[in-house]
């Protein structure tokens, strides 16, 4: 695909091997849905979403080599555009037919937002599957078939995709006990790495950004979603959010970052 060529050269085999080792995945025997599903889930269980550089006032880079150094060599995480830009590079390098879309997150408290979130569409057997490893809330744990009104369970929640005149596609999530709500909307216009630079700068620097106000870290551990968010340490399981420790001190936050997420604010 021409936009993959615009993004740049694929990873070397050495880089691919180190990336797969970081997420505890073997090299694929087949580029099929089974492998893509394992790849997405293993990525979500080994590489955290985290905004520690933003909170430290450090600039973010979507340069592929910079991202590789940060996430793979230094064992860090990143925000959505960082994680999905690096993941997109891995998918391309493994040989998947992949295209990136720009989406709008639809939050309960802020339903209309700028396009800021990268999601990938992978072509397999004439069908498109959405894959994403960069969300800071319970999100689809499996690639989702891009098919209208098909309810797709991932073992935790249910998802469906619906066409919409404004959004293009709308992804809905059904959380147990809460019912269906919209998660994000996107169109199928292909995007390249450079298209996500403005969104990354907005996330890190704009006063209206929802990612530069407090520490946001999350990771899937033992099939449960754990996060530091809004000053609290929490987990989500069965679609229900449970506050484990509210109102964290900076000292306690640092302990949880290290002990639970394997991170240090000074890394």
């Amino acid at each position: 695909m021409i936009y993959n060529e615009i993004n740049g050269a694929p990873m070397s085999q050495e880089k691919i091997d180190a990336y797969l080792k970081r997420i505890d995945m073997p090299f694929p025997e087949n580029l099929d849905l089974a492998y893509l599903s394992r790849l997405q889930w293993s990525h979500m269980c080994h590489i955290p979403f985290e905004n520690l550089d933003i909170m430290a006032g450090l600039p973010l880079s979507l340069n592929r080599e910079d991202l590789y150094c940060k996430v793979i060599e230094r064992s860090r995480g990143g925000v959505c555009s960082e994680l999905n830009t690096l993941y997109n590079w891995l998918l391309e390098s493994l040989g998947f037919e992949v295209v990136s879309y720009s989406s709008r997150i639809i939050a309960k408290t802020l339903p209309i937002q700028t396009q800021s979130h990268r999601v990938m569409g992978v072509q397999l057997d004439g069908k498109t599957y959405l894959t994403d490893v960069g969300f800071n809330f319970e999100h689809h744990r499996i690639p989702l078939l891009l098919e209208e009104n098909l309810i797709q369970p991932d073992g935790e929640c249910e998802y469906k995709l619906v066409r919409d005149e404004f959004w293009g596609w709308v992804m809905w999530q059904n959380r147990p006990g809460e019912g269906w709500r919209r998660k994000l909307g996107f169109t199928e216009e292909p995007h390249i790495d450079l298209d996500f630079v403005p969104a990354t700068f907005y996330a890190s620097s704009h006063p209206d950004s929802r990612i530069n106000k407090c520490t946001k870290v999350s990771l899937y551990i033992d099939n449960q979603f754990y996060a530091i968010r809004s000053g609290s340490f929490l987990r989500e399981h069965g679609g229900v959010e449970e506050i484990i420790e509210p109102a964290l001190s900076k000292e306690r936050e640092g302990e949880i970052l290290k002990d639970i997420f394997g991170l240090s604010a000074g890394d």
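Helices lie at 2-7, 13-22, 33-46, 52-55, 64-73, 80-94, 197-205, 250-259. The mean pLDDT is 93.
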